[in-house]
Hints:
By secondary structure, this protein is of the alpha+beta class. The chain has helices at 3-8, 39-51, and strands spanning 24-28, 31-36, 57-59. A three-stranded antiparallel sheet has the order 2-1-3, with helices on one face. The two termini are 24 Å apart.
Amino acid sequence: MDASQALCWHGYGKQPEELTLRKHKVMLGDKVLYQASQLSHAQRFAKARQVEGVPCHVVPDETPKAPRKVRINSLTGKPYRKVTSGTVVK
């Protein structure tokens, strides 16, 4: 990672390779008007455009979410919360 990537990256503890952002799209026909990581942001944008009279719609990203890694308590050596089937043990 060079200096320009270090300044613009906001992963909150994740490495840039681990970040897989979802891409929900607001479409006008076959043209992408807006792309958002959060579905609610795309829906809000689409609703605002529809109020303005633009006939657009939201296409949610269908890629499955990556399982979260288990956080281990450094004092006890056990997970902070109960491990569920969707989490990955490190």
